Protein backbone atom coordinates (compact mmCIF):
# COMPACT_ATOMS: atom_id res chain seq x y z
CA UNK A 1 0.00 0.00 0.00
CA UNK A 2 2.67 2.50 1.03
CA UNK A 3 4.84 1.83 -2.00
CA UNK A 4 1.90 2.23 -4.33
CA UNK A 5 0.94 5.56 -2.81
CA UNK A 6 4.50 6.86 -2.87
CA UNK A 7 4.99 5.79 -6.47
CA UNK A 8 1.83 7.65 -7.42
CA UNK A 9 3.12 10.70 -5.50
CA UNK A 10 6.49 10.55 -7.25
CA UNK A 11 5.07 10.16 -10.72
CA UNK A 12 2.56 12.96 -10.39
CA UNK A 13 4.14 15.48 -8.06
CA UNK A 14 7.09 16.36 -10.22
CA UNK A 15 5.10 17.28 -13.30
CA UNK A 16 2.20 18.85 -11.44
CA UNK A 17 4.32 20.90 -9.06
CA UNK A 18 6.33 22.18 -11.99
CA UNK A 19 3.20 23.13 -13.89
CA UNK A 20 1.80 24.96 -10.90
CA UNK A 21 4.95 26.63 -9.61
CA UNK A 22 4.33 30.21 -8.52
CA UNK A 23 7.03 31.44 -10.90
CA UNK A 24 5.35 29.76 -13.85
CA UNK A 25 1.70 30.93 -14.03
CA UNK A 26 -0.85 28.42 -15.22
CA UNK A 27 -2.40 29.61 -18.46
CA UNK A 28 -5.60 28.37 -20.06
CA UNK A 29 -3.75 25.90 -22.23
CA UNK A 30 -1.85 24.31 -19.35
CA UNK A 31 -4.95 24.20 -17.18
CA UNK A 32 -6.94 22.58 -19.94
CA UNK A 33 -4.40 19.80 -20.30
CA UNK A 34 -4.27 19.05 -16.58
CA UNK A 35 -8.03 18.88 -16.13
CA UNK A 36 -8.84 16.61 -19.04
CA UNK A 37 -8.97 13.48 -16.90
CA UNK A 38 -9.64 12.39 -13.34
CA UNK A 39 -6.13 10.98 -12.99
CA UNK A 40 -4.26 14.11 -14.03
CA UNK A 41 -6.60 16.34 -12.04
CA UNK A 42 -6.09 14.22 -8.92
CA UNK A 43 -2.36 14.47 -9.52
CA UNK A 44 -2.48 18.23 -8.99
CA UNK A 45 -3.54 17.88 -5.36
CA UNK A 46 -1.51 14.71 -4.86
CA UNK A 47 1.55 16.63 -6.02
CA UNK A 48 0.75 19.43 -3.62
CA UNK A 49 0.41 17.06 -0.65
CA UNK A 50 3.61 15.35 -1.70
CA UNK A 51 5.51 18.63 -1.63
CA UNK A 52 3.92 19.63 1.66
CA UNK A 53 5.25 16.34 3.06
CA UNK A 54 8.67 16.91 1.54
CA UNK A 55 9.80 20.47 2.22
CA UNK A 56 10.37 22.79 5.09
CA UNK A 57 7.20 24.71 5.90
CA UNK A 58 5.62 21.92 7.93
CA UNK A 59 8.47 19.95 9.46
CA UNK A 60 12.09 19.73 10.42
CA UNK A 61 14.49 22.61 10.94
CA UNK A 62 12.54 24.97 8.68
CA UNK A 63 9.11 23.94 9.97
CA UNK A 64 6.45 25.66 12.03
CA UNK A 65 6.78 23.40 15.06
CA UNK A 66 10.48 24.12 15.44
CA UNK A 67 10.62 27.79 14.49
CA UNK A 68 7.56 28.87 16.47
CA UNK A 69 8.76 26.80 19.43
CA UNK A 70 12.00 28.77 19.31
CA UNK A 71 10.07 32.04 19.23
CA UNK A 72 8.03 31.04 22.27
CA UNK A 73 9.17 29.52 25.57
CA UNK A 74 9.37 25.82 24.64
CA UNK A 75 13.02 25.25 23.75
CA UNK A 76 16.55 25.81 24.97
CA UNK A 77 18.65 26.26 21.84
CA UNK A 78 21.83 24.15 21.61
CA UNK A 79 22.85 24.33 17.96
CA UNK A 80 22.87 27.78 16.46
CA UNK A 81 22.57 28.95 12.89
CA UNK A 82 21.53 32.38 11.68
CA UNK A 83 17.82 31.62 11.40
CA UNK A 84 17.41 29.52 14.54
CA UNK A 85 19.27 32.07 16.66
CA UNK A 86 17.17 34.92 15.27
CA UNK A 87 13.94 33.04 15.99
CA UNK A 88 15.15 32.09 19.46
CA UNK A 89 16.07 35.63 20.44
CA UNK A 90 12.99 37.09 18.69
CA UNK A 91 15.26 39.08 16.40
CA UNK A 92 14.07 37.99 12.96
CA UNK A 93 15.14 40.46 10.29
CA UNK A 94 13.35 41.21 7.00
CA UNK A 95 16.25 39.74 5.04
CA UNK A 96 15.83 36.27 6.55
CA UNK A 97 12.14 35.46 7.06
CA UNK A 98 10.96 31.84 6.99
CA UNK A 99 7.64 30.36 5.85
CA UNK A 100 6.18 33.25 3.82
CA UNK A 101 7.25 32.15 0.35
CA UNK A 102 6.38 28.48 0.81
CA UNK A 103 2.94 29.22 2.24
CA UNK A 104 2.13 31.51 -0.65
CA UNK A 105 3.39 28.88 -3.07
CA UNK A 106 0.91 26.40 -1.62
CA UNK A 107 -1.83 29.04 -1.83
CA UNK A 108 -1.02 29.80 -5.45
CA UNK A 109 -1.23 26.14 -6.35
CA UNK A 110 -4.50 25.80 -4.45
CA UNK A 111 -5.87 28.81 -6.33
CA UNK A 112 -4.82 27.31 -9.65
CA UNK A 113 -6.51 24.03 -8.74
CA UNK A 114 -9.75 25.77 -7.73
CA UNK A 115 -9.81 27.70 -11.01
CA UNK A 116 -9.05 24.65 -13.10
CA UNK A 117 -11.58 22.46 -11.32
CA UNK A 118 -14.29 25.12 -11.54
CA UNK A 119 -14.11 25.21 -15.35
CA UNK A 120 -13.40 21.51 -15.91
CA UNK A 121 -16.08 19.71 -17.91
CA UNK A 122 -14.65 16.21 -18.33
CA UNK A 123 -14.15 15.16 -14.71
CA UNK A 124 -16.26 12.79 -12.69
CA UNK A 125 -18.45 15.15 -10.59
CA UNK A 126 -17.65 13.48 -7.26
CA UNK A 127 -13.90 13.67 -7.93
CA UNK A 128 -14.12 17.31 -8.97
CA UNK A 129 -15.95 18.18 -5.75
CA UNK A 130 -13.50 16.26 -3.57
CA UNK A 131 -10.47 17.91 -5.17
CA UNK A 132 -12.03 21.36 -4.89
CA UNK A 133 -12.66 20.72 -1.21
CA UNK A 134 -9.03 19.68 -0.71
CA UNK A 135 -7.77 22.82 -2.44
CA UNK A 136 -10.00 25.07 -0.35
CA UNK A 137 -8.87 23.30 2.81
CA UNK A 138 -5.18 23.78 1.98
CA UNK A 139 -5.72 27.45 1.18
CA UNK A 140 -7.52 27.99 4.48
CA UNK A 141 -4.83 26.11 6.40
CA UNK A 142 -2.05 28.24 4.90
CA UNK A 143 -3.85 31.52 5.46
CA UNK A 144 -4.52 30.59 9.08
CA UNK A 145 -0.77 30.46 9.69
CA UNK A 146 0.06 33.50 7.58
CA UNK A 147 -2.41 35.73 9.40
CA UNK A 148 -1.28 34.46 12.82
CA UNK A 149 2.42 34.85 12.09
CA UNK A 150 2.45 38.09 10.08
CA UNK A 151 -0.84 39.85 10.85
CA UNK A 152 -2.33 41.55 7.80
CA UNK A 153 -1.28 39.74 4.61
CA UNK A 154 -2.26 39.98 0.94
CA UNK A 155 -5.39 37.91 0.32
CA UNK A 156 -4.49 36.19 -2.94
CA UNK A 157 -7.33 34.09 -4.35
CA UNK A 158 -6.44 33.99 -8.05
CA UNK A 159 -3.53 33.16 -10.34
CA UNK A 160 -3.11 36.41 -12.30
CA UNK A 161 0.46 37.17 -11.35
CA UNK A 162 0.15 40.79 -12.51
CA UNK A 163 -2.68 41.34 -10.02
CA UNK A 164 -1.02 39.31 -7.27
CA UNK A 165 2.25 41.23 -7.63
CA UNK A 166 0.61 44.54 -6.67
CA UNK A 167 -1.75 43.45 -3.90
CA UNK A 168 -1.87 45.34 -0.63
CA UNK A 169 -2.14 43.74 2.79
CA UNK A 170 -5.67 42.74 3.77
CA UNK A 171 -7.28 43.34 7.15
CA UNK A 172 -7.04 40.34 9.47
CA UNK A 173 -10.83 40.13 9.79
CA UNK A 174 -11.22 39.81 6.01
CA UNK A 175 -8.59 37.10 5.80
CA UNK A 176 -10.42 35.17 8.50
CA UNK A 177 -13.69 35.62 6.62
CA UNK A 178 -12.10 33.92 3.61
CA UNK A 179 -10.64 31.14 5.77
CA UNK A 180 -14.04 30.43 7.29
CA UNK A 181 -15.77 30.53 3.91
CA UNK A 182 -13.26 28.08 2.45
CA UNK A 183 -13.63 25.71 5.39
CA UNK A 184 -17.41 25.85 5.36
CA UNK A 185 -17.41 24.99 1.67
CA UNK A 186 -14.81 22.27 2.21
CA UNK A 187 -17.01 20.58 4.82
CA UNK A 188 -19.74 20.35 2.17
CA UNK A 189 -17.45 19.18 -0.64
CA UNK A 190 -15.17 16.67 1.09
CA UNK A 191 -16.06 13.06 1.75
CA UNK A 192 -16.33 11.70 5.27
CA UNK A 193 -13.90 8.84 4.65
CA UNK A 194 -10.24 8.89 3.64
CA UNK A 195 -9.16 8.38 0.03
CA UNK A 196 -6.11 7.11 -1.76
CA UNK A 197 -4.35 9.12 -4.45
CA UNK A 198 -6.84 7.99 -7.11
CA UNK A 199 -9.65 9.81 -5.20
CA UNK A 200 -11.75 6.66 -5.55
CA UNK A 201 -10.35 3.97 -3.29
CA UNK A 202 -10.96 4.24 0.44
CA UNK A 203 -7.97 3.85 2.75
CA UNK A 204 -7.29 3.65 6.48
CA UNK A 205 -4.40 6.12 6.12
CA UNK A 206 -5.35 9.70 6.92
CA UNK A 207 -3.03 11.61 4.62
CA UNK A 208 -5.64 13.48 2.59
CA UNK A 209 -8.03 15.87 4.35
CA UNK A 210 -11.67 14.85 4.61
CA UNK A 211 -14.82 16.56 5.90
CA UNK A 212 -13.78 16.04 9.51
CA UNK A 213 -10.36 17.61 8.96
CA UNK A 214 -12.08 20.71 7.59
CA UNK A 215 -14.45 20.68 10.56
CA UNK A 216 -11.55 20.37 13.01
CA UNK A 217 -9.71 23.30 11.48
CA UNK A 218 -12.94 25.29 11.46
CA UNK A 219 -13.31 24.66 15.21
CA UNK A 220 -9.81 26.05 15.78
CA UNK A 221 -10.44 29.09 13.61
CA UNK A 222 -13.72 29.87 15.36
CA UNK A 223 -11.96 29.63 18.73
CA UNK A 224 -9.42 32.17 17.52
CA UNK A 225 -12.29 34.43 16.39
CA UNK A 226 -14.10 34.10 19.75
CA UNK A 227 -17.11 32.47 18.09
CA UNK A 228 -17.67 30.08 20.97
CA UNK A 229 -20.96 28.37 19.91
CA UNK A 230 -19.67 27.64 16.40
CA UNK A 231 -16.37 26.33 17.80
CA UNK A 232 -18.30 24.01 20.12
CA UNK A 233 -20.52 22.74 17.32
CA UNK A 234 -17.61 22.06 14.96
CA UNK A 235 -15.49 20.35 17.62
CA UNK A 236 -18.41 18.24 18.82
CA UNK A 237 -19.16 17.05 15.29
CA UNK A 238 -15.72 15.44 15.14
CA UNK A 239 -15.54 14.28 18.76
CA UNK A 240 -18.89 12.50 18.50
CA UNK A 241 -17.76 10.55 15.44
CA UNK A 242 -16.53 7.66 17.58
CA UNK A 243 -16.51 5.21 14.69
CA UNK A 244 -13.50 7.03 13.27
CA UNK A 245 -11.94 9.07 16.07
CA UNK A 246 -11.07 8.50 19.70
CA UNK A 247 -8.29 9.26 22.13
CA UNK A 248 -5.60 6.58 22.41
CA UNK A 249 -2.83 5.84 24.95
CA UNK A 250 0.04 8.32 24.99
CA UNK A 251 2.40 5.77 23.43
CA UNK A 252 0.18 5.42 20.36
CA UNK A 253 -0.88 8.99 19.64
CA UNK A 254 1.62 9.70 16.86
CA UNK A 255 1.50 6.37 15.05
CA UNK A 256 0.26 6.32 11.48
CA UNK A 257 -2.78 4.23 12.42
CA UNK A 258 -3.64 6.36 15.46
CA UNK A 259 -7.37 6.76 15.93
CA UNK A 260 -6.65 10.21 17.32
CA UNK A 261 -5.35 11.37 13.94
CA UNK A 262 -7.63 13.63 11.92
CA UNK A 263 -5.05 14.59 9.30
CA UNK A 264 -1.45 13.45 8.92
CA UNK A 265 1.39 13.97 6.43
CA UNK A 266 3.22 10.88 5.22
CA UNK A 267 7.05 10.90 5.07
CA UNK A 268 8.01 10.49 1.43
CA UNK A 269 11.80 10.18 1.30
CA UNK A 270 12.34 8.22 4.50
CA UNK A 271 10.35 5.86 6.67
CA UNK A 272 10.39 8.30 9.58
CA UNK A 273 9.29 11.89 10.11
CA UNK A 274 11.50 14.92 9.67
CA UNK A 275 10.59 15.98 13.20
CA UNK A 276 12.00 12.71 14.56
CA UNK A 277 15.20 13.35 12.62
CA UNK A 278 15.38 16.91 13.92
CA UNK A 279 14.62 16.42 17.59
CA UNK A 280 16.28 13.00 18.09
CA UNK A 281 19.13 12.71 15.59
CA UNK A 282 20.16 16.36 15.21
CA UNK A 283 18.98 17.39 18.69
CA UNK A 284 19.32 21.19 18.29
CA UNK A 285 17.14 21.96 21.32
CA UNK A 286 16.29 20.74 24.78
CA UNK A 287 13.00 21.40 26.52
CA UNK A 288 13.06 24.78 28.23
CA UNK A 289 12.98 25.16 31.99
CA UNK A 290 9.54 26.76 31.79
CA UNK A 291 8.16 23.81 29.81
CA UNK A 292 9.65 21.28 32.23
CA UNK A 293 8.24 23.17 35.21
CA UNK A 294 4.79 23.15 33.60
CA UNK A 295 4.48 19.36 33.96
CA UNK A 296 2.85 18.11 37.12
CA UNK A 297 4.21 15.16 39.05
CA UNK A 298 2.98 11.94 37.47
CA UNK A 299 2.20 13.48 34.07
CA UNK A 300 2.74 10.67 31.56
CA UNK A 301 3.49 13.14 28.80
CA UNK A 302 6.71 14.06 30.55
CA UNK A 303 7.63 10.37 30.65
CA UNK A 304 6.61 9.36 27.12
CA UNK A 305 6.92 12.56 25.08
CA UNK A 306 10.29 13.75 26.42
CA UNK A 307 13.51 11.81 26.86
CA UNK A 308 17.15 12.24 27.81
CA UNK A 309 19.03 13.54 30.84
CA UNK A 310 18.55 16.96 29.30
CA UNK A 311 15.07 16.28 27.95
CA UNK A 312 14.22 16.87 24.31
CA UNK A 313 10.96 16.29 22.37
CA UNK A 314 10.25 12.60 21.83
CA UNK A 315 6.74 12.51 20.43
CA UNK A 316 8.09 10.89 17.27
CA UNK A 317 10.41 8.02 18.10
CA UNK A 318 11.18 6.20 14.86
CA UNK A 319 14.53 7.06 13.23
CA UNK A 320 15.48 3.73 11.67
CA UNK A 321 15.26 3.98 7.90
CA UNK A 322 15.37 0.21 7.51
CA UNK A 323 11.98 -0.30 9.16
CA UNK A 324 8.58 0.19 7.55
CA UNK A 325 7.04 3.57 8.37
CA UNK A 326 5.10 3.43 11.60
CA UNK A 327 4.75 7.16 12.31
CA UNK A 328 3.26 9.93 10.20
CA UNK A 329 3.50 13.62 10.99
CA UNK A 330 0.40 14.57 12.99
CA UNK A 331 -1.24 17.76 11.74
CA UNK A 332 -4.71 17.73 13.33
CA UNK A 333 -5.63 15.48 16.25
CA UNK A 334 -8.54 14.88 18.56
CA UNK A 335 -6.98 16.07 21.82
CA UNK A 336 -6.81 19.60 20.49
CA UNK A 337 -10.54 19.51 19.78
CA UNK A 338 -11.32 18.53 23.36
CA UNK A 339 -9.27 21.49 24.55
CA UNK A 340 -10.91 23.79 22.00
CA UNK A 341 -14.32 22.69 23.18
CA UNK A 342 -13.34 23.00 26.84
CA UNK A 343 -12.30 26.61 26.39
CA UNK A 344 -15.29 27.51 24.19
CA UNK A 345 -17.69 25.85 26.63
CA UNK A 346 -16.23 27.73 29.58
CA UNK A 347 -16.37 31.06 27.75
CA UNK A 348 -20.02 30.26 26.92
CA UNK A 349 -20.84 29.64 30.58
CA UNK A 350 -20.81 25.82 30.52
CA UNK A 351 -18.36 25.19 33.34
CA UNK A 352 -19.43 21.56 33.79
CA UNK A 353 -18.86 20.69 30.15
CA UNK A 354 -15.51 22.47 30.11
CA UNK A 355 -14.41 20.57 33.22
CA UNK A 356 -15.38 17.22 31.68
CA UNK A 357 -13.39 17.89 28.50
CA UNK A 358 -10.36 19.01 30.47
CA UNK A 359 -10.48 16.00 32.78
CA UNK A 360 -10.61 13.60 29.82
CA UNK A 361 -7.27 14.90 28.55
CA UNK A 362 -5.75 14.98 32.03
CA UNK A 363 -6.94 11.43 32.71
CA UNK A 364 -5.27 10.18 29.53
CA UNK A 365 -2.04 11.71 30.82
CA UNK A 366 -2.39 9.77 34.08
CA UNK A 367 -3.32 12.80 36.20
CA UNK A 368 -6.02 12.72 38.88
CA UNK A 369 -9.16 14.86 38.74
CA UNK A 370 -8.67 18.38 40.04
CA UNK A 371 -10.87 20.24 42.48
CA UNK A 372 -11.38 23.32 40.35
CA UNK A 373 -14.78 24.85 40.97
CA UNK A 374 -14.43 28.37 39.64
CA UNK A 375 -14.24 29.66 36.07
CA UNK A 376 -11.05 31.70 36.37
CA UNK A 377 -8.79 28.89 37.65
CA UNK A 378 -10.48 26.51 35.22
CA UNK A 379 -9.55 28.76 32.29
CA UNK A 380 -6.00 28.90 33.59
CA UNK A 381 -5.99 25.10 33.80
CA UNK A 382 -7.19 24.75 30.21
CA UNK A 383 -4.42 27.04 28.94
CA UNK A 384 -1.90 25.10 31.02
CA UNK A 385 -3.17 21.86 29.53
CA UNK A 386 -2.71 23.20 26.00
CA UNK A 387 0.89 24.03 26.88
CA UNK A 388 1.80 20.52 28.07
CA UNK A 389 -0.36 18.59 25.59
CA UNK A 390 0.55 20.44 22.39
CA UNK A 391 4.19 21.37 22.97
CA UNK A 392 6.49 21.18 19.94
CA UNK A 393 3.47 20.86 17.64
CA UNK A 394 2.52 23.37 14.95
CA UNK A 395 3.32 26.53 16.89
CA UNK A 396 0.37 26.10 19.24
CA UNK A 397 2.15 27.67 22.19
CA UNK A 398 3.36 30.72 20.23
CA UNK A 399 -0.08 31.33 18.76
CA UNK A 400 -1.80 30.76 22.11
CA UNK A 401 0.38 33.33 23.86
CA UNK A 402 -0.69 35.91 21.31
CA UNK A 403 -4.33 34.83 21.13
CA UNK A 404 -4.80 35.05 24.90
CA UNK A 405 -2.89 38.35 25.23
CA UNK A 406 -0.21 36.76 27.39
CA UNK A 407 2.66 37.20 24.96
CA UNK A 408 4.12 40.41 26.37
CA UNK A 409 3.95 39.28 30.00
CA UNK A 410 5.48 35.86 29.27
CA UNK A 411 8.03 36.88 26.66
CA UNK A 412 9.37 39.83 28.64
CA UNK A 413 10.91 37.32 31.04
CA UNK A 414 11.57 34.55 28.55
CA UNK A 415 13.35 36.73 25.99
CA UNK A 416 15.77 37.98 28.63
CA UNK A 417 16.54 34.40 29.67
CA UNK A 418 17.23 33.57 26.02
CA UNK A 419 19.70 36.43 25.67
CA UNK A 420 17.39 38.81 23.86
CA UNK A 421 15.18 41.76 24.72
CA UNK A 422 11.44 41.59 24.17
CA UNK A 423 9.64 44.34 22.31
CA UNK A 424 5.88 44.09 21.71
CA UNK A 425 6.15 44.38 17.91
CA UNK A 426 8.10 41.10 17.87
CA UNK A 427 4.92 39.06 18.22
CA UNK A 428 4.65 39.49 14.43
CA UNK A 429 7.34 38.31 12.07
CA UNK A 430 8.56 40.88 9.53
CA UNK A 431 7.38 40.88 5.93
CA UNK A 432 10.29 39.65 3.77
CA UNK A 433 12.26 42.55 2.33
CA UNK A 434 12.43 40.79 -1.02
CA UNK A 435 8.63 40.84 -1.28
CA UNK A 436 8.46 44.56 -0.45
CA UNK A 437 11.06 45.31 -3.12
CA UNK A 438 8.95 43.47 -5.68
CA UNK A 439 5.65 45.03 -4.61
CA UNK A 440 5.54 48.76 -3.92
CA UNK A 441 2.09 48.37 -2.32
CA UNK A 442 3.33 45.97 0.35
CA UNK A 443 4.17 47.60 3.68
CA UNK A 444 6.37 46.39 6.53
CA UNK A 445 5.17 45.47 10.02
CA UNK A 446 5.73 48.17 12.59
CA UNK A 447 9.06 48.05 14.38
CA UNK A 448 11.04 46.55 11.52
CA UNK A 449 13.32 48.51 9.21
CA UNK A 450 12.95 48.00 5.44
How would you describe this protein?
By secondary structure, this protein is mostly helical. It has a single domain, classed as Serine Threonine Protein Phosphatase 5, Tetratricopeptide repeat (Alpha Horseshoe), CATH 1.25.40.390. A hairpin with a 4-residue loop joins strand 4 and strand 5. Helix 1 packs across helix 3, helix 3 packs parallel to helix 7 and helix 10 packs parallel to helix 15. The longest helix has 26 residues. The protein starts with a helix and ends in a 12-residue tail after the last helix. The N terminus is likely disordered.
> How much is the average pLDDT?
92
Classified by CATH, the class is Mainly Alpha
Which runs of at least 5 residues are low in confidence (pLDDT < 50)? 1-29
Could you tell me the radius of gyration in angstroms? 21 Å
Number of DSSP strand runs = 6
Largest sheet: 2 strands, antiparallel
As a percent range, the share of strand residues is: under 5%
- From the N-terminal CA to the C-terminal CA, the straight-line distance is 50 Å
By CATH, the architecture is named Alpha Horseshoe
Structural class: mainly alpha
Tell me the number of structural domains.
1
Q: What is the CATH topology assignment?
A: Serine Threonine Protein Phosphatase 5, Tetratricopeptide repeat
Oligomer state equals single chain
Q: Order of SSEs, N→C?
A: HHHHEHHHHHHHEHEHHEEEHHHHHH
Strand order in space, largest sheet: 1-3
Overall 3D form: globular
Residues in helices, as a percent range: 40-55%
Amino acid sequence: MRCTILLFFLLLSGSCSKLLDADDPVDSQTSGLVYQSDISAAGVLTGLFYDMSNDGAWMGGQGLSYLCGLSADEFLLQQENELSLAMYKNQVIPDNVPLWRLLYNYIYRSNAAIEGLTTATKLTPAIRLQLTGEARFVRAFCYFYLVNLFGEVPLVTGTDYKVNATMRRTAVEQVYDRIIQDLQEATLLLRTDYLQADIISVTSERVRPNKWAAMALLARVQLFRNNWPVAITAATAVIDNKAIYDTVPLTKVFLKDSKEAIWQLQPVNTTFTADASLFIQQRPVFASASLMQAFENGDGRKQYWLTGLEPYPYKYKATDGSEPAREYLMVLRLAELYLIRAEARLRSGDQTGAFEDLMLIRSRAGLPPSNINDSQPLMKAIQHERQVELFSEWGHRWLDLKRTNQVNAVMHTVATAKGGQWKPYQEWYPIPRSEILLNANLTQNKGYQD
